[in-house]
Structures are given as structure tokens and as C-alpha cells.
Amino acid sequence: MALFRSRPRFAGRSRVLALGVAITCTLLLAGCGGAASGPPTLIWYQNPDNGGQAEIAEQCAKASGGAYRVTMQVLPKDATQQREQLVRRLAAKDSSIDIMSLDVVYTAEFANAGFLRPFTPEETARLREGKLDAPMKTGYWRDVLYAAPLKSNAQLLWYRKAAARAAGVDPTAPDFTWDKMLAAAESQGKKISEQGARYEGYMVWVNALVQSGGGQIVTNLEAGADAIPALNSPAGLKAAQIIGDLARSPSAPADLATAQEEQARATFQTDAGMFMLNWPYVLAAAREAVTEGSLDAAVVDDIGWARYPRVDAGLPSAPPLGGSNLAIGAFSRYPVQAAALVECATALDKVTQYMIDEGEPSSYAASYDDPRVLAKYPNAGLIRESINEGGPRPITPYYVDVSGSVINTWHSPESVTAPQTPAHTDVFMAEVLSGRRLL
User: Fold this and answer.
1) Smaller CB count within 10 Å for the chain: N or C?
2) Do 256 and 247 contact (CB within 8 A), yes or no?
3) In 3D, which of 68, 13, 63, 17 has the Cα closest to residue 44?
4) Hey, do 13-153+322-388 and 156-318+398-433 end up sharing a CATH topology, with the first three levels equal?
5) Bridge partners, residue 310, by sequence
6) How large is the average pLDDT for residues 150-159?
7) pLDDT of residue 405 exceeding 60
8) Cα separation of 434 and 201, whole Å?
9) Is the separation of the CB atoms in 164 and 187 below 8 Å?
10) Which CATH architecture has domain 13-153+322-388?
11) Would you list the domain boundaries of the chain?
12) pLDDT of the residue at 27
């Protein structure tokens, strides 16, 4: 997600997790005890998963023919905490960070600060081959590639088929909008699940609405602190209207202001659930719940999926784009070997297998034609389309300030009004970017 989501482990992954831990311990001992003349040990700071990145590291180390070993260091679950740990180390010019799994929203900040080693034009050409455009763009800053997609993601619209039929709506229709969705849910006395807590997931929602309405949260991004807040616009006003209308309606879950991904999923799977905006993992999670006996199979059979709803019937939506990229630390003592590891780890076969094992969508178009992926993801084509046409959050070295300004001024969802909230945010954000206000 972009951001890391707390989610249940799926069946069969405990073995891989144990394998990843074993690999880490073995490689760490080899790195500490090996002779100075032996191959270098690359340290990969990864976001948490169920062992998939450690497995990729082992495969790449073996395929290198002894050119390098790999040690895994696991970062915190929360994307903000991941950033803080990496920033502290890189600001101190920590040479132990050879490779890092970096949330897509932080590439510009880290690159602008001189924390990342840029890829050469030759490496860039190889890393781009076969990948979808939208995930690749998250790895660039000032037209230079600093991070290569390991996994991508995009939110979908999930709906309960029976309730949609009863309301007489087709969520897969090209002109299905947020306004139609709210009217349908209210007509059936049902709920719309979203992430409205005071965290990055709420920024995902606001940004998707603004981009789907043809606008941007902030413009002139390469100007850094001089970027121009742009929420007080038709797109920003419509986004505020949608959030406020939902939050103050009977179709808002009681926990909307504190809900993250898993809370939204729990509401959607109850009898009151009708619509949900969430990442592709939710289908596999629901199936696993059936296997465990905690969810009725009839609920899974009743789940449908569609592209992220439109804000304006005449404009295609911009599904929220998430994911994680691999970047090389600027102070790494082994940049050549690190670049080779990134190329190996982000190769088509590795990324496709990671999608199958970890439930994290691929950045490669070809992955979605793989029979193994199609067997696990009946909505594979929709996921690929949503990622390729997804809307990234603002690519700016001041992303933390931009996101923090939005989250602070748009929370709680019930308090959001148009035009007051967008206008207030623009003033607030301008003061934060200029250093006149602290978050």
C-alpha cells in the first residue's frame, strides 16, 4: 500500500517466514565472521512481510555466483516509522544501508537530500523494461531514476452484489460515481467502508478524490518549499463535499474517523456492509477467513469488485497508487553489487512470485497474464489497469509536510466542509512549507 498494511498472514506463509529468518541469521553470521577478502555482505533494510524479500535475497545471492551475500534488516511496520529510522541513519552517512525498501512517497525526499545513489542510464533502461508506467514514475526525481519498483498497488471498489442489485446500481458501469454510491448505500441502509483515521491512509483517500476530479493537492512540485497548495479548486471542493457528505450520512460506519484498512474490511464483511475502498489483499484475506472458519463462505461469494469510483461521471477515476521501491544508499561501500542486487530482486520472475506468495501486486504488465496469478486473482486485469492508470500522491521532497497538512486540516471526516476546509488547508500548507508553522 503504499503504506504498510497490517493484515493476516495467509496459509502456507509461516514456512517462508521461518526460511527468511534462517537466511537472515545465516547471512549475518557469514557477514560478521567472513574473511575480509571474501565477497561483500550487502545489508537490505526491508519493510515487514512474510519472508518474501528474504527469499528473494537468498535467490539473488546464489545467482550472483559469489559476488555478494545479503543480510536482511527489518524496519518497523508503519511507513512513517520506516522513514524516520532510515532518515536518521542516512543523515549520519551510514554506509551499512546498501539497499532499502522505500515507500513510494519518499523517493523525492530521499533523492533531494542526497541519500540515494542514482541509477545509471544503462541500469535505468534495464529496470524500466516491461514495467507499468505509473509505478516507474514513483522512482524518479528530476528525471533521474533513484528507486525501482519491487511491488505496486492500487485500491479497488469492493461491493456486495446482493445489496447493489437491490439498489438497482451497477458499480462496474463507467459512470458510477461517489454520489451514486452514497445514494445507493443510503437507499439500502448500508455502510461505505473507508480509511478515515488520522494517518497516511486518509491522505490516500483525499488525494484520490482530488486527482479523480482532475485536480492536484499541490502544484509546481519541483519548486520544493515554493510549491503551490491547490486544494481550493473545483476538484478540492468536490473532494471535500464527498467526504463531508459521507461522514455525516447514516452510511458512514461509526468508526470512520478511526478506521484503517482492517477496520474497513471488518465492517464490509458484516451484514451492514455494501461498499468498500481498499487494496487487493482483501479478497485473499476474506478467503483465508473462510478457511479458518471465521467468515461464512456466502460472504465471499457475494463480493464483487470494480474500478475506483469516479468523482465526475465524465472523467476516469485515478485509483490510489501505492507500493514499495528498492533504492541504493548513497553511502554504500558496494554500489555496483547493490545495483546488481536491485536488478535481480526486481526481475519479472521475482516480482511475480512475490505477488503470488505475499499478496502484493506486481509492477510488471506480464505478471497479470501468468496462469498462477490468474488462478489466485480473478480480478488480475482490473488490478493491472488500476495500477497503470493510478494516481500517485504528490512527488515532492516536502511530502511529509504536504501530507501532514492535509491530514491535520481534513480530520475528522465529519468536520470537512466546502469551501472552508480546502481554503484552510491551502493557507495552513503554505505556512508549513515556508517554515512559518510547525505540524
Assistant:
1) C
2) yes
3) 68
4) yes
5) 177
6) 98
7) yes
8) 25
9) no
10) 3-Layer(aba) Sandwich (3.40)
11) 13-153+322-388, 156-318+398-433
12) 39
